[in-house]
Design brief:
With 362 residues, the protein is mainly beta. The protein has two helices and 23 strands. Strands 2, 3, 6, 7, 10, 11 and 12 form a seven-stranded mixed sheet that branches. The radius of gyration is 30 Å and the shape is elongated.
Amino acid sequence: MAALSKRDLAQAQVSASVQQQQQMQQQQLQQPQGYQYNMNMQPQQQMIPSGPGAGPSMTIDRYGNSREVIYAYGEEEDVQGVAHLTLAPGKKFEHLGIKIEFVGRVDMSQAVIDGRSHYDFISQTKEVSPPSTLYQTQTSIPFYFRSDDKPHETYHGRNVTVRYFVRVIVERKFFPPIKHDQEMIVQLIKHEPRLNQPIKMEVGIEECLHIEFQYKKRYYHLNDVIEGNIHFMLVRIKIKYMELAVIRREMSGEGLLNNSPSANGAMGGHAHAPPPTTDGGNVVTETQTLTRFEIMDGAPVKGEFIPVRLYLGGIAADLTPTYDATDSRFAVKYYLNLVLVDEEDRRYFKQQEIILWRKTLG
């Protein structure tokens, strides 16, 4: 092997030194040592209750015993807080600008809107820092977003997620921006409608079964009690037991129709939750049984009344208010499903929609 001359050896050493410096600079640009984000959103800085019906501010522990806390906002509360950018001592960081966004987003895992699986119904951006260099170990940047219309509650369903978050974006030269999201919860406080009429309907099977069910009202808050009764007017089949279930129906997709099940007087013959279905090509429907309990055991007789009392606050599932088909994109509806089972295990059912609303934060 030929020996390197002094000139070739010097060039090789210079080339290696330049490559080493470039690698070190690239590592510093990609992620400076000790660079962290801390979204500090203290309750006393975060909440400004205002307007009629605005409840007190509160925090919700998202992960049980975890220290991570997600804060809840009412419809008319402003969003504000402080973003802390932390550097290791003795380090610096050059950036091309810092901005903070407030976003309300609907994610749909099974549906596509305008070629995307999500769409933003709120998007506000504020430039909080021009291009500069950070030298301090901690840089605190306050942010404030005035209360605008928040049309939807935070919701985490099977195929649809409605979420709000604050995003910090640090732009960098030659590299993708650094982003950090802080999720928040929005809950919409409502009032009971002035007109809350009872639900009354007669259903049955011709010449075999005729019953009348009645619930005291149609609108219920999330901790309400559903009360009513079942009146057997004609019984010619051997009924083994009767149960009442609360069903959530989630619909998503473009061109969603705001339709409810038919309210005719016939009872159906299938009471199990069907798998996700599509309606009109791009609309996905997911039906979920939240709870069921037995309200009668044994065969009833003609003229018998069976009382109904169901505590919504005792349902383990996360109840949410009813979502109408806003913008024809998604909807969440709740139904009471009355099921009768005969001695041959044939099931007869009738569904009736109820409207849920939120009375207090929590």
